[in-house]
Amino acid sequence: EIFPYIAHLLNGAEVEWKPLGEVCDKIFAGGTPASTKEEYYNGTIPWLRSGEINFNGIDKTEKTITELGFSKSSARWVRKNSVLLAMTGATVARSAVNNIELTANQSVCALETNESIIIYKYLYYCLANKFEALKYQGQGVLSSLNLTTIKKIEIPIPPLSVQQEIVRVLDKFTQLEAELKIELETELDCRKRQYEYYRDKLLSFNEVVGGVKTLIFSDLQWKTLGEVADFQNGFAFKSRLFRDNGEVIVRITNIDGKGVDLSDVKYFSISDYNTNMSPYKINKGDILIAMSGATTGKIGFYNYEYTSYLNQRVGKFIPKANILNNRYLYHYLLSKVEEIYIIAGGGAQPNLSSNKLMEKIQIPIPPIEEQERIAGILDKFDTLVNSIIEGLPREIELRRKQYEYYREKLLSFPKN
């Protein structure tokens, strides 16, 4: 059924369905210069790969080729304002428009439209609307596309004035989604900065910050971490003994900078090891740290109900009771990530020693009640930041669903 607004615009005009081969001046695939020839790459000619196609506008390509590479390959120029369709790979059936003249590899289909019949942006929206059907082609499994199949794809062709109005409406939805994303990300950044500001000021113990007083204690002492907490290193689990299920192993890659992400984990069975695993247990509320690799120095608060286990190069802090509040320690460590990274040696392969960490990092120790008060204030900021992080993708998804709903309605025309 035609959307009422579009029916009004059509005013009785007929909408014919035509194959892409009849509405495009050219439909062709690109080519790839020999990858072994260095002189073919890093030139001035933009060269697009299918992985860069993701329902977007292409203003720049990740790779470029030289005039020589272009002449020695089957790559062809694609005129500006064409439609690009990924034919294979992870982005198969996704489409894009090129805002610049470019070339592409053989996994990209270029569609140069006949502008007297079809507006290129209208074609883009039609193909985006057909994404799921093209991706699986009715087979239920991921497939690949070829030029013959693409040329036979049929789409509705209303008058150009109607196409233009459909494009205008859908462009507006796309713009609103982009603006919402920027707005939410800006809000998130502001809240993160606000948290960091209050965290650093509250832990300095010498100022009144935004009406929140940081009390000064005459007996305030600075202690090394080793004086107020114990530290547990991880266990060297054997990769050959990993299982498909069982006990969860927390690795350095699971430490995400504030929390612990267990979306990708390895498992083991306690029965495979003749070792007391109790010291390596991770329980809810434990504070972890990555001790090597790209995440060195990052802190993770374990907030899961079930027990996991420390892998090697993941450490756990154990605050001494009645001396150091757990959440106070957590917030303080977040303020010391860069310093910890330097202690680890920095550079390309940082490696953190637990002894150095516990000896070199100092922490102010006010009365436990003051630690709890500070932790409570910072926890409120933390909760606010996390609520935005969780809500951001949900808000964007709702806006996207709204866009997809209207896209489908606007492009619904009865077939001949």
Any descriptors?
single chain; 416 residues; Adenine-n6-DNA-methyltransferase TaqI, Chain A, domain 2; 3 domains; four-stranded antiparallel sheet; elongated
Plain-language structure description:
- The protein folds into 3 domains: 4-158, DNA methylase specificity domains (Adenine-n6-DNA-methyltransferase TaqI, Chain A, domain 2, Alpha-Beta Complex), CATH 3.90.220; 159-188 and 367-416; 221-365, Adenine-n6-DNA-methyltransferase TaqI, Chain A, domain 2 (Alpha-Beta Complex).
- 36% of the residues lie in helices and 20% in strands.
- The chain is built from 12 helices and 22 strands.
- The chain has a 5-stranded mixed beta sheet with strand order 2-9-6-7-4. A 4-stranded antiparallel beta sheet has the order 14-21-18-19.
Strands, count: 22
CATH topology term of the largest domain: Adenine-n6-DNA-methyltransferase TaqI, Chain A, domain 2
Task: Kindly state the percentage of residues in helix.
Answer: 25-40%
C-alpha termini separation: 13 Å
Q: Numbering strands along the chain, what is their spatial order in the largest sheet? A: 2-9-6-7-4
Overall pLDDT score: 91
Q: Helical region count?
A: 12
- Amount of beta strand: 15-25%
CATH homologous superfamily annotation of the largest domain: DNA methylase specificity domains
Query: Which regions contain 5 or more consecutive residues with pLDDT less than 50?
Result: none
CATH class group of the largest domain: Alpha Beta
CATH architectural name of the largest domain: Alpha-Beta Complex
Shape: elongated
Q: Give a quick account of the main beta sheet: strands, pairing sense, barrel closure.
A: 5 strands, mixed
**Number of domains as seen in the coordinates:** 3
SS-derived structural category: alpha+beta
